[in-house]
Each structure stands twice: as structure tokens, then as C-alpha cells.
Amino acid sequence: MKNTLRQVFQSGKFLVGFCIFVALLLIVFLYPIFIPDPPLAILGQGTFFPPGIYVSTFDSINSQTIYTLNLPDAAARRIDTRLNDQQRQDIKDWLVLDGIPADQIDITNTAQLLDLWGKNYDPNKDIPGLTNAKRNYYQRLSVSLQGLLLTAGQIIALPNATTGALEQTGAVNQSDYVNIGQVANVRVLPLGTDNFGRDVLTELVRAAGVSLEIGFVAGIIATLIGLSLGLLGGYVGGFLDDIIMFITNLFLVIPAFVLLILISFSIGQESRGAFTIAVVIGFTSWVWTARAVRSQVISLRNRDHVNLSKLSGHSITHIIVSDILPYIASYVVMALILQISSGILAEAGLSILGLGPRTTEMPTLGLMMNWAMIYQAQILGKWWAYFPVLLTIALITFSMNLMNTGLDQLFNPALRD
Amino acid sequence: MPDEKKPCLSATGLTKVFGFGRQKTVAVDHVDFDFYEGEIISIVGESGSGKTTLAKMLLGLISTSEGEIYFQGKKRDLGKGIWDQWKKREYWKNIQAIFQDPYSSYNMFNKIDAVLLDCIRMRGGGKLPQAKKIAMMTEACSFVNLKYEELTNKYPFELSGGQMQRLMIARIFLLKPKILLADEPTSMIDASSRATILDMLLKLRKETGMTLIFITHDIGLAYYVSDSVYIMEHGKFVEHGTADEVILHPKEAYTQRLINDVPKIHEEWDLSTV
To answer: Are residues B88 and B11 in the same domain?
Structure first.
């Protein structure tokens, strides 16, 4: 036993898969301890905030100490973030359409460009060849460019409590800085927010945990059913075997996923919890385990050590448990690993179709994919809403398949490379 | 040989058919015999002649296709299906076996003690005090020149093939069945321990007076140990009689060939005819 374990951990493939899997498990267990936010709390007003560090503007302006830093390229950076090369080109295009010769426009000279723009641009001007969308775009651009070249600061004002008139309380200069550590509210959203404005990372960690639970429950149920039916049918044989094989073949010819869809559809949205889905997945995916176990048992039941056990007067249960089960244990562990990973995939598949667990309680990897798909994250290019989910699913199944292959090579030397 | 011979194990028209239709294989074909109590019987044949199938039928490990087996004059009834297990268990108190391959005869997940303890339990000694059980196991082990203290807490794969097969004999020593079916017990053992194992089997048989059914492909061995010899070809007994009759005066060409196949040490190998 000890020897087998040592061998298992000397297999490179198993070790890599095991490390990835354990790392995922550690994240799933430890992350909620350090960041105990509710995973489905809606933080953002709006959809799909990009990943990054969010600093409270209000707290920055009202920060206790304001530092003055005279950085030489500050103005250039400020202009660059508000007027990028594409926008400069767009401005040039408009100006050319308006009738200004192209060679007179230098898009690198910001002052000249904005001067021309300010003199010529009029939202009511009828420029031929511009779509409505483009027209609106130029209007927005024009608004955003206001005050771009100003060097003066801005006034902070508060409305007077009695008159309602604004009264200056302070000013912000262009060279004013705050230390981010002194800003009261800074929120890091490493993976941004999703369509509901929820923190994707917190949600993802919880979802991975729930999906793993679903996979484990489904895998264990499927393996238990498959194992017991396979052992019974294979060892006892005869009529019992015929019945078991009939049921197994019945399940085999109906594609498991179709069965899964039909069952979870008929259960109804309200009673579909994560556990129910796991049980349904377990009850539809035991077939291959049963068949494989049965064929292994059939080859084992005529071995000499089984005959000897019979001759020693052991009962059927004793023979199955102590003379057959240990010989197929390695195989069953491998089947269990595969069942867990395919259970996770099946949940993801079901949830993408909108037949997964009900959506109000906990996220799962499939549900996150479903939300991202419904809110068109992939069309809008909001990669953070679906790509990390895909990566997590891929990592989980990859690590489990790697462990499975490692074990397979260990227990079946013909497969070693 | 006693004058009054009591049949211990007999069969009429015993047949085993595997498969059906085109793949039908008749492994044992309408075999009749009477094995007498206390005799050593050899069943000799080439591989594929149905010896092992016959042995398994006699042991009740596989069902018979046709024919009847009589145990001590009475028709053997092992019951049907999984609900009549006790009938088989009763039968197996009387008939035991040693298999051909000692390496696959043991459950490699169980320690050696378990094998011997099973025998004590089967003989009704399951509730004996621990010291008594150990004494019995020590006795059985010393009968086959093994030391119980060295074997306890070991796994079967830590033993050599010869030791494993000797432990099988120790098992029979504890069980003391009326009939022992030895299915080529020495074929997987190296030549040096072969004689030891045979001697132990014969010694055990002398002490307990059990019927020994010896299945082998080695006609010389059969001649050496047995009272009567059955020659088996393609599932049928082609010739039987006392060892002297069959081997010194063979009537069948098949028997003659088996005898000629025995290699002689001092003869030079003639590879040109192979």
C-alpha cells in the first residue's frame, strides 16, 4: 500500500496534475478566509467593469494631505489618455471631410489640431458621408476634449445649505497628488465585475468550489452505482447479469446528455439546487463504469485466488469485497477521477443551456458562463467575464485527466512511454 | 491395495461444452470413471485435453453441461444459484485442490496467516483461542518445512514459488479433506523443489489416507506416484488401468506417443526432426 502510494507520487504526470489540483483546492478553501465577501454581492452599478484598481475619486479629492509633484511628462500623459492616436486620426478625417486640406493637418501637434477642431467643428454642420453613429461619436468626442489644454486647476465647491448657491471649498491643481495608501476607499477588482456588477474573482472562486462539490457528488454517486452494478452483474452472472446489462445498454443508447437535459428540465427551475443537479448527473453517467467494472470482474472471477477463496468457504459478499474489489480498486479510483471531471463538465454544459442549478443562491462555473453568454460578454469583448471561467474549467479537467493518465500508466505498464 | 474398493468419486457421461453454434467447444466429452477411496489417480494428457476443466467440474467450480457426478456413492447436489452456497461449502469440506500456478493462487492483498486461518475456521475451529490457532498453523507449516514465525505478517508475493506451493500443502494439511485434486502442482516450480513438493504430497496422503487425484502432463511422474492412470485426449478418456498396465503396456497410439515424448537425459537431442 505504502509502496503503491510512493510509486503513484513518482509518476510525473500524476504529480503535475495533483499539484495543479491541490493548488486549485487551496485557493478555493483559503480565498474565502482572507476575503470573506459574499460572492454574489452586487458591487458595481453597471455592467462589466474592466479589471483594475478602483480608487475613490471623492476620497482622493478630500484626502488629508495633498502632495505636489512636478513631473515633466504629466501634461503629455494627461493629453494622451484623453486623446489617443485613433481619436486624432478621426479628428483629421472629419476636418478633411469638412474641406481642410490634409497636408495642413499635423495630428502630432495637439495644440494645432485642437485649434482647428475648435474653430471648425459644429455638431449641426451637415457633412456628407457620415453615419448617424459617427455623428454622435464626434459629438461625444468634442465634449470630452473640452478643457484638455487648460493648465489651471479645478474648483471644489459645495452648495450652501440655505441658499443652494455653490461656494468654493478648495481647489485641485494639475500637480496635486494623493498617496494611494491614504485614500480611504481603494478596491482591487483583479477580474473586474460581471454583468450584474459582481466581483468576478470572488464569484469565480466560489463557483469553482461549488462546481467541484457537484463534480465530487456526481462522481461518487456514478462510481458507486456503476461499481455495485458491475460487481454484481460480473460476479453473479446469469439472469441477474442479463437484467443489469439490459438496463446498462438502455442507458447507453440514450445519449447521457440528452437524458440529463430532459431530467433537469422536468425537475423545474425552482427545485433545481446544486445538489439535485449533482445527483441527476450522477444517475445518468454511471453506465461506462458499470460496463468496465463488469468486464474486469468477469476476467477476475475465474482466477485461481477466487477459486481458492471459494474452496475456503467464503461467502459471495466476502469474495467480492476482499478478493475482487482490491484488484479493481486502482481502476475504480481512475474511473472516479474521470467521473468527477466529466461531472464538472456536464454541469457546465447544462448551465450554459440554462438548465443548471437555480441562479439565486450560489454561482457555478456553468452559471457564470451562462450569464456571460446571455449578456453577450463575448461579443462586447469583456473577456474577464468568461475567459477566467473557461480557464478554471480547463485547469480542473486537465489536472484530473493528467492524474488519471499518470495512474493509468502506473497500473497498466503497456501504456508507459 | 485393499480388496474391497469403495468408489469415492464417480461420474457418468460427464460433459462440458463451452460456447454454442460455431464457437462450440467440447472440453470434456462424455467421461465415465470410478475413483476409489485411498487411491492415487493420475489424469494424464496434453494441454488442451480438458484436464483442468474436468478438475473444475469435479470441484464444483464450474457447472456441468451433461452427466452426473457421484460423491461417495450419492449423487452430488450443489444446489443452484447463489442461494444454496452452504451445499457447496459442505462439499468443499470433503474435496480440496492445489492449483497449477502458486503465484496466482493467493490473494495478494491478504497476509499469509489469513489463508491458514480460513482453513481452521472451515474445520470449525473459528472460536479456538489464539494460541491454539497459532499452534495449529505452526504445526502445518513445520509439516511442509516452513517456519511459521518467518511467514507470519508476510504477503504471498514475498515468498518463492516453491514456498507458496508448500504453503498450499500446509493448507490441505489443516483441512484434511477426503479428496485432494492436485492440478499440475509442480509444473510451475523449478526442478529442485519439485521432488520436495511431491514427497510432501505423498507423505500427507499417507498420513491422512485421502484420495489423491493427480492431474499432470508428465507421464513419468504419473507412473512414479499413481495407483491408476487415466489418459485423456480431446476431452475423452482413451485408456485407463493401473499404472503398470497403462504405461508399461500401452494399447493406444496416443499413450505410446505421450510415453515417447518424455525426454531422456542421456539421449542426444535430435533437432532435425523438430
So the answer is: yes
